[in-house]
Automatic annotation (TrEMBL):
UniProt record similarity statement: Belongs to the ROK (NagC/XylR) family.
Name of the molecule in the record: ROK family transcriptional regulator
Residues annotated as signal peptide: none
InterPro entries the record matches: ATPase_NBD (IPR043129), ROK (IPR000600), ROK_cs (IPR049874)
Domain of life: Bacteria
Length: 318
């Protein structure tokens, strides 16, 4: 049994999590700090360094052979930089170089957070055993990643599979990304809630106007809430069908906060998919909920580091 470990970082707008992970995906040590998202770039990096200090200070660190980073995007793996939308202090920030410096020059693999969650679901979760899969995170935004021919397919910059910014409505609302009618503009949690409120949905006495509250109302049969989820499901179905038609995936895994809505989302989504995924080679496409939960980003970052390490070893032996 190989006793080497990899370090993993999961960087988002709310928290920066770190872990030491073994070759079976088990987390042996974890550390976390809140993301000072609205502070200067160096303050954010200090939080990353504090997380890494907890890991490097452990007696287990001597076994660490590589670092994987899953970061909110956009990321640029080819340049080693990150520019997370919700961390304005980081624009083209040289995260790979800075992490390498703190970890004694270990190899560092950077991927987007959607790709990291895909890696986790393929290694340990709902896409396990599938050679061609799309994994999606439907939450405050809509992200994703691809597994093709049994391997994670991050693309040259680490953003391949970013389904949230496929346009599914030609003359749709402008999206924050600059395009129109994107999947995210219709299917993200805040947009589900925005549409329900605009169409007359009334929150309960607690005043909760989140997508989770809309989902609860949809469960009790509120027609406006049901319609808002149906519209989100239609956008997701169109994006998933387009992806399946393009690259022949056989499973789509859906996670994130909106994915937790359960049948309120999955029932209209599976129905809508039938109207978009019509060609023979996409008709067998399954849609399943994610299994990995809150550790998906860390486990996926570790998977990327392990894959990189295996690829490096294979190249060295040629």
């Amino acid at each position: 049994m190989h006793t080497d470990l990899v370090a993993a970082l999961d960087i988002g707008g709310t928290k920066i999590a770190g872990a030491l992970v073994d070759g079976h995906g088990r987390i042996l040590l974890r550390a976390q700090r809140p993301t000072p998202a609205l502070e200067a770039g160096e303050s954010v990096m200090r939080a990353v360094e504090e997380v890494l200090a907890e890991l490097t200070g452990s007696p287990l660190w001597i076994r660490a052979t590589a670092v994987g980073i899953g970061s909110a995007g956009p990321v640029d793996a080819s340049a080693g930089t990150v520019s997370p939308v919700n961390v304005p202090g980081w624009r083209g920030f040289p995260l790979v170089e800075r992490v390498r410096a703190v970890t004694g020059g270990l190899p560092v693999e950077l991927i987007g957070d959607g790709v990291a969650i895909t890696a986790a679901e393929h290694w340990q979760g709902a896409a396990r055993g599938h050679d061609n899969a799309l994994c999606m995170v439907v939450s405050t935004g809509v992200g994703g990643g691809l597994v093709l021919d049994g391997r994670l397919h991050p693309g040259p910059t680490g953003n391949a599979g970013h389904i949230g910014h496929i346009s599914v409505e030609l003359d749709g609302d402008p999206c924050a990304c600059g395009s129109r009618g994107c999947v995210e503009r219709i299917a993200s949690g805040p947009n589900i809630a925005r549409r329900a409120l605009a169409n007359g949905w009334q929150p309960g006495p607690d005043g909760d106007t989140s997508a989770a509250a809309v989902a609860e109302a949809a469960r009790t049969g509120d027609p406006v809430a049901v319609a808002s989820f149906a519209r989100a499901a239609q956008a997701l179905a169109a994006g998933i069908a387009a992806t399946a038609t393009l690259v022949e995936i056989d499973v789509a895994v859906i996670g994130g906060g909106v994915g937790k809505a359960g049948d309120v989302l999955f029932t209209p989504l599976r129905a809508a998919l039938k109207t978009y995924a019509t060609l023979s080679f996409v008709q067998r496409l399954e849609i399943v909920p994610a299994q990995m939960g809150t550790d998906a980003g860390l486990v996926g970052a570790a998977a990327a580091a392990l894959t990189r390490r295996a690829d490096d070893a294979a190249e060295a032996s040629v």
